[in-house]
Amino acid sequence: MSQNDNLTRTTCPYCGVGCGLLAGADGTIKGDPEHPANFGRLCSKGAALGETIDLEGRLLTPRIQGREAGWDETLNLMADKFSTAIRDHGPDSVAFYVSGQLLTEDYYIANKLIKGFIGSANIDTNSRLCMASSVAGHKRAFGSDTVPGTYADLEEADLIVLVGSNLAWCHPVLHQRIAVAKAAKPGMKVVNIDPRKTATTDLADHHLRIVPDGDTALFNGLLAHLADTDQLDDEYLKANVTGRRPAITQARLGDPLESGLSEAELALFYQLWAGTEKVVTVYSQGVNQSKCGTDKVNAILNCHLATGRIGTLGSGPFSVTGQPNAMGGREVGGLANMLANHLNIEDPEHRASVQAFWQSPTICTQPGLKAVDLFQACKDGKIKALWIMSTNPAVSLPDAGGVAAAIENVPFVVVSDIMERTDTGDLADVLLPATGWGEKDGTVTNSERRISRQRAFLPVPGAARPDWQIICEV
Asked: String of b and e for 211-222 (b: at least 16 CB within 10 Å)?
């Protein structure tokens, strides 16, 4: 009998790499050698998952105002409070705040409830904090939020450019894959673009210490250089791309030296990028989390589009996500300005299509409140009922103290979590015990848009229920 016979094939719940695991109820955790995201590799966090599956500190029963309650009482109270708010103040008086830790099925049902049955788009996610710039950049460039890269590109590339991405710490298994590929292919070059020296810098052939937010100047300068040196792919541009001239004109208005790099460093990078056919540009939160994040994203995408270095093995821009299911949430409309399947709230035909598929009595007609605006509305007294699922915004959002005060200002607050107490849960009128990783079944989508199963290998503790089931019952 194989030593893996009693292990369950599932997916790691930590980051957007989406590593496959073999997990056992006794705490055994192994990398899944057959999973194409990691081929058996694990980082230190994934390898230590077995230490997280005990029940210490778990929320095991519903609670109303701190006292234990049954599910029927709790669900009836929630339904009454949300219905009353909608009746007295309209659909936009209620809001959901969800999380990239939810499974895709949870995300989908939450969006279906609030957008198709309540009729409000006031649902946003903590993924907003890390991925909104990339979503907007993709939609501006491609018409939809589509990541065009795969992990296999990292091993096939001849040049990997890491921008605002400390892979060694934040996506260790991808860092391992690049390191192995580089060792096997000495001609591969790695450029690390980061204001700071990080653990990832050790892997790089060149470290370009740009100034914070210098990315746009750097990549607009690259686009101008490619145009000025006749290194654009005219055939690809004619067949696939519009807006060539205005993009190049705008890029030429900038000054690459505003990146903080010297002329020699700029020349080295531009020549290396232009002279290498297979280029992958990996970017992450150092690009996204900025007031000019969307412009940074599009500056990167434009260079790949202008040269046809996209959609082919070993080439393309590649956004790597932070949370295990940030991508799955985006696919099912988990943001306040999206519908399921990358459809647009503002498009009447898209709305009609989704409503018909859902067979719902209504559909939201305009974008809802995004994360920061949502909690500002709580502060202003506009939100009368709030449901927070699988996240802790009283700690994790900017101005955490202000967010906590805003939550306190909402007349009725529900928090779904696995932990008995969190800073956000302490502010709730109702606590709902959700199932955790290892106890629930569903799917997640990783950074390369690969859908993987999460499978239960532990019994459901106490009165806990899966998020999707709780939402359906409400």
From this structure: eebbbbbbbbbb
**Secondary structure E strands in 144-219:** 159-163, 189-193, 206-208
Decide: 306 and 272 in contact? Cβ < 8 Å.
Answer: no
Tell me the C-alpha distance between 413 and 82, whole Å. 10
User: Which pLDDT belongs to residue 132?
Assistant: 86
More confident residue, 116 or 290: 116
Print burial letters for 35-46: b (CB count within 10 Å at least 16), e (below 16). Answer: bebbbebbbeeb
pLDDT digits (tens, 9 = 90+) for 139-186: 999 998 889 999 999 999 999 999 999 999 999 999 999 999 999 998
Give the span between the Cα atoms of 127 and 371, in whole angstroms.
9
Continuous segment of H or E residues that includes residue 235: helix 234-240
Q: Are 364 and 95 within 8 A, CB to CB?
A: no
Answer yes or no: is pLDDT of 21 > 80.
yes
Are the CB atoms for 393 and 97 separated by under 8 Å? yes
Lowest mean pLDDT among 4-8, 91-95, 237-241: 4-8
Which residues, in sequence order, are bridge partners of residue 193? Answer: 163, 208
- Tally the residues of the chain: 474
Residue 2 pLDDT > 80, yes or no?
no
Give me Rg for the CA atoms of the chain: 23
Question: How confident is residue 1, by pLDDT bands cut at 50, 70 and 90?
Answer: very low
Per-residue HEC secondary structure of 368-384 comes to: CCCHHHHHHHHHCCCCC
Q: What is the pLDDT of residue 130?
A: 80
Read off the tokens for 425.
């849960």
Q: Would you state the structure tokens that stand for residue 210, as one six-digit string?
A: 């740009």
Helices 371-379 and 400-408: crossing angle in degrees, nearest 10, is 50
Yes or no: say if 61 and 85 are a contact pair by the CB < 8 Å rule.
Answer: no
Closest CA to 288 of 252, 253, 312, 323: 323
pLDDT average, residue stretch 252-260: 97
pLDDT digits (tens, 9 = 90+) for 87-107: 999 999 999 999 999 999 999
Strand segments (E) across 148-266: 159-163, 189-193, 206-208
Closest-CA residue to 117 (of 125, 109, 105):
109
Q: Which structure tokens are listed for 53? A: 């599956």
Phi, psi of 149 (to 5 degrees): -105, 160
Helix (H, G, I), strand (E, B), or coil: what is residue 288? helix
